[in-house]
């Protein structure tokens, strides 16, 4: 097994969290380097694309959270071998990246009215679309998991998004949005959330 | 070989173009369905995430251009088998998707002054960063290709971006930006551009 070090911000969410969960579930040992936001400005210029997470693999830096998901997913048995199943898994991870890209600009709005408008537009636009479509895809694929009939890194990304939505942490996005638009994604959330390795991980973090 | 149909807009660029080139180079037969923009509003609601390209694989729809690149890359020998080489390939494809996401909003600006500001900020900000960093990564990986010591789908995405930049099609982005910031990406561009299957493809398109 290569020596792995994941560098990401010091909270249990964001793009790096699926990387951590994939390694925890797959029993892939790694150094979980969490940096405080105060250290980021100094670190940033030296990071490959000036963004986190990055994974060091025997000292070699690899950027991009979904590239990392795929790599550690292969090591830990959470990424499909079959090309079509891999495509189903990849499609969902990239869709979640689209959602993240739409969310991120609204995280740093200081004007409350501007934030309200942006978040309401998100909830009624892309979030509604992706929830409904992901619910439909999940149903078409048997209702339990997004690829390969088992837990993969795609499920981890959807799980983390639905958890974020349902937590109420996003002002002006109704926390029951998933429950109303895609009840099967709530069942999917509960399915992943009760995985013993995830329960164990969050008992410690 | 599964029956493949790629649906994308009717021009030789954008997110779907690497999909086409990967299949052309890999001798993967496919239906190259090109739709005029005028048909898009009618088609859009029925497409998985309301975005193109999509690939039908024996009738099953798969969205997301890099998921498609990976799938057809596997079929045509343009995607690495080795997990670390695959991570190197994935990282570059996802970086190119970041660049595309930064570019796209500037394509639809009607106010000329607003467009000038946005494009100049792109050129001096993310474009400069990604060109310099990609040039450095290419050098670290031997100077010829981004992964696996041979042509992969990662090279196709970088090739298409550099071609776009050097074409002068982007107003207010200097067409010699790549030549000035990352001369080895220009050599890489020439390397990919002279591949017999690419020469052959563009002789017909």
Number of domains of chain A: 2
The largest pleated sheet of chain A is described as: 4 strands, mixed
Give the CATH level 1 class of the largest domain in chain A.
Answer: Mainly Alpha
Shape of chain A: globular
| Tally of separate helices of chain A | 9
Rg of chain A, rounded, reads 17 Å
Q: Count the E strands of chain A.
A: 4
Strand order of the largest sheet of chain A: 2-1-3-4
Using a beta-carbon cutoff below 8 angstroms, give the protein chain pair with the largest interface and the number of residues from each chain. Answer: A-B, 33 and 33 residues
Strand content of chain A: 5-15%
Would you tell me the structural class of the helices and strands of chain A? alpha+beta
How far is it from the N-terminal to the C-terminal residue of chain A, by CA? 24 Å
């Amino acid at each position: 097994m290569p020596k792995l070090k994941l560098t990401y911000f010091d909270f249990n969410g964001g793009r790096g969290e699926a990387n951590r969960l994939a390694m925890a579930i797959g029993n892939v040992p790694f150094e979980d380097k969490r940096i405080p936001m105060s250290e980021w400005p100094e670190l940033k210029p030296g990071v490959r694309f000036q963004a986190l997470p990055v994974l060091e693999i025997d000292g070699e830096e690899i950027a991009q959270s979904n590239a990392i998901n795929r790599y550690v997913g292969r090591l830990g048995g959470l990424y499909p071998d079959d090309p079509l199943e891999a495509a189903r898994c990849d499609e969902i991870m990239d869709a979640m990246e689209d959602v993240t890209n739409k969310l991120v600009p609204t995280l740093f709005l200081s004007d409350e009215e501007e934030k309200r408008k942006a978040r309401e537009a998100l909830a009624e636009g892309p979030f509604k679309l992706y929830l409904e479509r992901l619910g439909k895809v999940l149903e078409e694929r048997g209702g339990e998991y997004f690829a390969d009939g088992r837990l993969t890194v795609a499920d981890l990304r959807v799980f983390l998004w639905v958890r974020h939505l349902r937590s109420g942490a996003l002002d002006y996005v109704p926390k029951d949005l998933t429950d109303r638009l895609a009840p099967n994604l709530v069942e999917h959330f509960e399915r992943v959330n009760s995985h013993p390795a995830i329960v164990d991980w969050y008992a410690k973090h």
